[in-house]
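Moderator note: this is an archived Q&A kept for reference. The question asked for a predicted structure of one protein chain; the sequence and the answer are reproduced below.
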Amino acid sequence: MKDFVDGTAFNAEQGNRARKLFAAVVLAALDDAISDDKKYGNGPEQIARWARSRDGREVLSCAGIDPNERVVAGLMDFVSKGVRTSVALSREESERRHAAAQAEAA
């Protein structure tokens, strides 16, 4: 008898991969806006324009992010801080690990 492959598990895995791909596009858009902010001083406006555009809303939705004004404000705030996404993500990860280690020690 043939091995049975669960189609729903396959579809869920495909969906997760697609969300990660679109999340990478969001991170790239943030990095582009940060670069624009350093060069031209208009990064927050650029990310807001992108996030409110049809393409931006579609990418955010596909990444699993609700494209509402609160999200746009958060993206603008992130860009205005000027920290590249790779640095922010690695710092966030190290802080999470540090907090987990402290909780274990307590």
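Archived answer notes: Residues 7-105 form one domain.
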